Amino acid sequence: MAMPAQSAALLAAAVAIAAAAFLLPPSSRLSWTPQGHFADMILANATIYTADPARPFAGAMAVRAGRVLRVGAYESVKELKGRHTHELNLSGNVVLPGFIDSHVHFIDGGLQLTRVPLRGVKSKDDFISRVKEATRDKHPGQWILGGGWNNDVWGGDFPAAAWLDDISPDNPVWLSRMDGHMGIANSLAMKIAGIDRSTDDPIGGTIVRTAEGEPTGLLIDTAMVLMFDVIEKVSTHERRDALLRASRHALMRGVTTVVDVGHYFPGVSAEKTWQDFSDVYEWAHSMQKMLIRVCLFFPMPSWARVSELIGENGRSLSQWIHLGGVKAFLDGSLGSSSALFHEPYEGDPGNYGLQVTDMDSLLNRTLESDKSGLQVAIHAIGDKANDMLLDMVDKVVDLNGVKDRRFRIEHAQHLAPGAANRFGKQGIIASVQPDHLLDDADSAAKKIGFDRAERSSYTFRSLLAGGAQLAFGSDWPVSDINPLQSIQTAISRKPPGWEVPWIPAERLSLDESLKAHTISAAYACFLDHAVGSLSEGKYADFVVLPSTSWDDFAGDLPAHVLATYVSGKLAYP
């Protein structure tokens, strides 16, 4: 599709500015004192949504040394224009704060971009064809890895090792489901992992079997660790490339900050996350290769190590790397029938889901983490899992006292009646992923029944009404990083092919959805002093959209961003 002349002109001007852009300031800390008088860059004739309630909209913005110097009417900004100030006339284009993705598995996402892509596969034949194609350039014994499949798309039947064995007899295969809580292995991979009919289910996991007791190849939750232990290790070089690839992908979508919760899972060594920190993130920082800001969460079992690291370095290693806290799990996922509910799954009266972590252990580690000043984030999807966490937070407050802890529940996907109000009363962050409802809208009723699905699923409006802070994310690579689509989903709640919204009472407004991907997301990771709004003194992280007025933007959200700036420098394209 040809680019409109105005958009092309904007890009040309942006590239020219980038070519002459200033270097980042030598100081690596968040404190900032403006030097000199004039701006490095001025955005003029813009439609700027600031996400700052003190000044929601503006027409111009001045940037100096990577920070917002002034935002307001052009008359108040033009006095900051000097001989070397670059002025960018946006001709009305909408400008937003850089998006914050509140929940990603960032390096895994970068790796997945080069693996077998199974998202959107609509049939068994297509599934098999994708894997067969991947075997062509593999040597015997080389692993074939991929993910993103969703059995609900092709009717609900789960894949089996038998689908893969004929096309990959000499290559072990592991393909994760879209939710990351289930995967399928071929027979060779199971043989390497030592999985057979005599292998016991691990605590918090399931080896799916035939009626005769033979493993089908499907592994759920902690059972996946049996496969993780034998999959060939990803090299440091590959992981570093994955970070850079992931960063460019995020910038293309207008994301300037991510909360990386790593790839820890119960039963998996916490050391992998720490290796990513030292081998990848610290390397990228030392080599000046960081492209976006990251807030890192570490496995809760290593809370003492995180506390020590923060004690030595503070919460921000630089403007790029922030130490968020610790993450844990309580249950599985809806798609894998392992999210923990008060009532059983439809057609499976003995299955209430899986509790993947012992509550006594979780409480004790949460108390210690919280006492040491760490932010705590815990995965909970089912209504029972969320209630258990809400009860646990009450105990933490009773034992450790009231403070600004910003406890996070990751996903908060299905809530029992009254639970949404408890989030607000307890000051808990609901870290939610709107685009997940696009996948679950068709399957939730089949999994837990129509009435339960309608009253409990993705209760964004109820959470806000109860006083909770919403933080939007993608859970990439479970869903793609795409804030504009996520915002549209939260507003419309219309999955593909649907004529009417799913649970329309839970829809959000445009402003509420934008804040959940900007200032509320910044608040949710203690970065609201530095990012999340276009306010004076904050980093000049922003996106330029093709919409040329606010009415144009609000009436038809664009599918892409025109340009992404980080610290006032053009980062995409």
Automatic annotation (TrEMBL):
GO-annotated molecular function: hydrolase activity, acting on carbon-nitrogen (but not peptide) bonds
Coiled coil: none
UniProt xrefs under Gene3D superfamilies: 3.10.310.70, Metal-dependent hydrolases, Urease, subunit C, domain 1
Amidohydrolase domain residues: 88-572
Superkingdom as given in the UniProt entry: Eukaryota
UniProt xrefs under InterPro entries: Amidohydro_3, Metal-dep_hydrolase_composite, Metal_Hydrolase, YtcJ-like
Name of the protein described by the UniProt record: Amidohydrolase YtcJ
Protein source organism: Panicum miliaceum
